[in-house]
Amino acid sequence: MSITCKRSALTKKCFYVSLEINMKNFESEENTQEFQQLESKLIRAQTELNLLYEISNAMRTTLKLEQILYIILTATTAHAGLGFNRAMLFLVNEKEGLIEGKMGIGPDTGEQANDIWKNIDTKRMDLYDLINVFNEQHSIFYSKFNNLVKNLRLPIKEESGLLAITLLEGMPLHINKEKTKTIEDNLLLNVLKLEEFVIVPLKAHDKVIGLILADNVYNKKPITNDDLRILSMFANQAGLAIENSRLYEKTLIQSHKDSLTNLWNHAYFQFLLKNELKNAQVDKNNLSIIMLDIDNFKEHNDKHGHQSGDQILYNVAKIIKDSARRKDHACRYGGEEFAVILPNTKLNEANNIAERIRKNIASNLFDNQITGEIDKITVSLGVATYPEDADSPSKLISICDKKMYKAKTAGKNKVVFN
After folding, report:
1. Residues 242 and 68 sit within 8 Å (Cβ to Cβ)
2. How far apart are CA 18 and CA 364, in angstroms?
3. Count of CB atoms situated within 10 Å of the CB of 262
4. Residue-wise pLDDT tens digits, 261-290
5. Which residues in 50-97 belong to E strands, given as ranges?
6. Which residues are catalytic?
7. Sheet holding 86-93, edge to edge
8. C-alpha 196: how far from its chain's center?
9. Helix residue ranges per DSSP H, 256-296
10. Percent of the chain beyond pLDDT 70?
């Protein structure tokens, strides 16, 4: 064999050896890359599970609904949580067929957003730190954004827009900037100023009870499929936490209700008055109370019996509640006496409400199912106001009570407010 042939054979052999080595190196690099991808996915999954575990533990620390909502939205917006810029929570009002805004957490401006993020970084606040700052006077409850969300109410029907559609379909929705250009939803685009956003249903026992809406309006960070996935996983936990809280509050409310009239009982009246007076003092607002007593009730009971008296108490309580405003607290003070707490209400306005209650009761002919007779009932009322009349719950009650009995001695079926 010639030298040229030998060189040619050697060259071929070297080429194949080199090719084999390169193939092994390629396979090794490919395996390493695949391993790194799997490792990255595993780390992300572990991080997500740890995060959901931490949030789940936080939600188990309370059964108060407002605090639960705060924890849910803080977890949605915190950098140590899901990291969205803003989050809104809506709940279903089945009785009225509405979706109601309950709470919104997020800065009012981009400048405020940067200040908040810098403050969190400086103080090195983690998720638990952010959750633990909750209290009834927290600045979040006075933000423009939260007030905007809390004022939103819309019917549960497709014409109401994407919130209602997501609720009815029970499926998460992701709207990016391109899709935003093609939709017409005045609430989301004009009122809430949304660009890219996600809406996920809150479920409890396969029933949709509300929605979370989240976006990145300030840092413009794109919302990924992973973001939507983990938010949906979190929403399932949040839905159950809300449902448990509702059941707890329902039980708690029943324990504070008078069993006959379904108004707040005496003990809860005292609690509400103390709490509302404290709020009035902090906010420098007025607070009024009305106390009323059914005229000639003892004589009616003596003549017709206590069952008939109970019928009157029930009917009067219903008129009181219907005559008061949504924000007022109608209570059964004891026996045939009732009380109404009127937050942020001046004396003249409280007098007008008292007159409305008096007239509505006096003009109503009660069909007494026990006696089979028609009862004509009247009440005597007293009105007292903070700070003009008194500055403590006990003094306010005492003065209001005296005015009520002044109305009785002046001929009954009257309101005394001065």
Report:
1. yes
2. 104
3. 14
4. 999 999 999 999 999 999 999 889 999 999
5. 86-93
6. 336
7. 153-155, 98-105, 86-93, 207-215, 197-204, 173-175
8. 24
9. 266-283
10. 86
Write the pLDDT tens digit of every residue in 91-113: 999 999 999 999 999 988 888 87
How far apart, in whole angstroms, are the C-alpha atoms of residue 199 and residue 206? 17
> Contact at 8 Å (CB) between 104 and 146?
yes
* Residue 195 φ then ψ, to 5°: -115, -85
What are the C-alpha distances in Å from 65 to residues 91, 244, 381? 11, 9, 35
Q: What is the rounded average pLDDT of the residues 314-335? A: 95
- DSSP one-letter string for 309-342: HHHHHHHHHHHHHHHS-TT-EEEEEETTEEEEEE
Region label for 288, one of left (φ > 0), alpha (ψ between -120 and 50) or beta (otherwise)? beta
Q: pLDDT tens, 121-134?
A: 777 777 777 777 76
- Residues 361, 323: Cα–Cα separation, whole Å: 9
What is 266-416's CATH superfamily? Reverse transcriptase/Diguanylate cyclase domain (3.30.70.270)
DSSP state of 264: B
Beta carbons within 8 Å of 187's beta carbon, 6+ residues apart = 152, 154, 160, 161, 163
Q: What is the DSSP letter of 152?
A: -
Which residue is it, tokens 């949605």?
A: 76
CATH number of 62-255: 3.30.450.40
Q: What type of residue is 331? A: C
Burial per residue of 144-160, b for 16 or more beta-carbon CB atoms within 10 angstroms, e otherwise = ebbebbeebebebeeeb
Name the nearest CA neighbour of 407 among 366, 367, 357.
Answer: 357
Q: Contact, 416 vs 407, CB < 8 A? A: yes
